Every structure is written in structure tokens, then in C-alpha cells.
Amino acid sequence: MRPWPLLAALAACSGAPPPAPREDPAPLFRTVETGTPVEAMEACARLARDWDDAWLPRLEKLLDGPPRPRARALQLAGDLRGEASARLLLARLPSLLESPDAETARLAAVAAGLRKLRDATAPLLSYHERSGDPAALRALGRAWSQGLQSPPLPRAAEIERLGVLALAHRLAMGPDATPEACEAMLRAMTRPELEDFLGSHAADRFPSRRLCDRAVRRKDFDPEKGARVHEALLSSPDLELVSEILETSPHPLRPEIVRSFLDDRREAKEGWLLCDAAAARLSGRRPAGREERDALIRSLKRP
To answer: What is the pLDDT of residue 18?
Structure first.
């Protein structure tokens, strides 16, 4: 008996609805290849949702094709999961990163980063050295992301991680720092490295402080690590930055730390005090007038 009737019969016996048959991928791949950008994006999303490794030859054909379908295939490859598609991307990555088409190379780096491919470290480093493309640095940071509770890496992997961290740190703390360098640096740091960095710099006006703030606000940044960075930056002498973090940080800042600013009447910007920012975060309100803000602060300070 063919699998589909058997599954349907079993589902009928169990009372569960039969599984929906997979969508024929051929029209979707044609849309990826020839459709409008919006149509291709939708087709890629549907292919990623229902992906079957039996479709790898079709993806491989697109990766070897002209620039436009190749770019779309790279977007799809970045959204997939599973070892087979990762191996295909790794096998193609060196030639893709050396493509004379700059957009192909950039999207290849982005795809490797989305897949967090640590085995892509060497070609990504080489590509970054040739091109300076920040997408390579972001991809390296994603590949070597460390959580605050991450266990130690094996020796060979740790050597690679430290090489990425050294490059990112040099660029993030240099005169031409970029958001991508700061993001890669903070992602790749272990907890002790992060604490040492924040202890050395958070309370100073170090030049890349605002880039670090931007980096940890990215939607896929580790929220625990992001909260730790933002809490440390609350000690910055840049009061406008402190106010922005208090009011708009997407991370779960500890309430007791935020409450400690309710007595801080230093002015972050004209007419706006740090206590106002703390009150806005704690209450979810932003009163316009001084009297209203002071009344809100008094109410929040009551036991």
C-alpha cells in the first residue's frame, strides 16, 4: 500500500484529521526563479515551511544559475534547517563569496550567518579581509554567539572563536567602528569576557557605546546578554543614552535597578530627567507636564 492511503487510514481510525499532502514544489521553484520579488519571497517562505531534502537538486541548480535566481536561492538557503542544506551551502560558499557579483557574495555571507555555520569561519574571514563587507562580520558573530550560560568550547573551536573575537574587538573599539563589529564582538564574548569588557568601559564615554546599544537591540540578540549590557550602560556618563535605555530597552531590565533612578534628577535632555525615564518604564506612561511626572514618580516611590 502506498504511504498516503495508509496514513489516511490510520488517521481515520484514530479520529485525527489526515495530514495535508505536501505542495508540489515545482511551481514554487519556478516562481523563485522567474516571479516578482514579492511572489518569490512568498514562494521561498512556503518552500522553507515544507522543505524536503529531496528538493536539494533544485536548490543547487538555482545556486548555480544567473544572479537573480541565485540571490533568491540564497535567501531560501538561509531560512532552511537541517544538515543536508547546510552542507550544500558550505560546499558552495567559497565560490559564492568570490563571485564578481557583489550582491551574490553579500547574500552568501548573510545565509551563512543565518545558519550559524561555524565551518564557514575561514571563507568568511577571507571574504571580509578582501571586501570589508560588514555582512561577513555579522555572520561570524552569529556563528560564534555565546550565551551567558554557554559551556566551554572544544580547544580547536575555542581558538577559532578567539580569532573572530579579536578581529571584532579591534574593529569595534577602533576609530571606524561599525554596528556589525560591535554586534559580532558582543555576541562572541563569553560571560567572563563580557563582564571584563563592561567593567572596563561601560562607565566611560567610550566611542562605540551607542553602537553597542544598537547592537543589543537587534531582535535576535540574546535577551539575557542584551539586558546585562544595557544594565551596565546605565552607569554611563552619557545621560541621554542612559535615558534611552531606561525608557526603550527591549530587554528585561531588573525593576530594582530601574527604581534606583526614581531619585535621579539629572537632566538627560531639555526638561527630561532620568527619574522621568525610569517612571515611564515602570508605569508604561509618559506624562507631558512636570507636575504630572513628579506626581507619577511620587506614586511609584510609595511602599
So the answer is: 54
* Residue pointed to by grid coordinates 566611560: 204
Task: Tell me the whole-structure pTM to 2 decimals.
Answer: 0.87
Question: Using CA of residue 98, residue 101, residue 104, residue 105, what is the dihedral sign?
Answer: positive
**273 has which bridge partners?**
267
C-alpha cell at 208: 562605540
| Averaged confidence pLDDT in the chain | 92
Q: How far apart are CA 168 and CA 32, in angstroms?
A: 35
Q: How many CB atoms lie within 10 A of CB 218?
A: 14
Question: What grid cell was written down for 68?
Answer: 537573480
Give the separation between CA 275 and CA 267, rounded to whole angstroms.
9
- First-last CA distance in the chain: 72
Task: Identify the pLDDT of residue 288.
Answer: 86
Whether residue 93 is predicted with pLDDT greater than 70 in this model: the reply is yes
pLDDT tens digit sequence for 120-167:
999 999 999 999 999 999 999 999 999 999 999 999 999 999 999 999
- Give the burial string for 179-203 (b: 16+ CB within 10 Å, else e): bbbbbbbbbbbbeebbeebbeebbe
pLDDT tens readout for residues 199-249: 999 999 999 999 999 999 998 999 999 999 999 999 999 999 999 999 999
Question: Grid coordinates 571584532 are at which residue?
Answer: 168
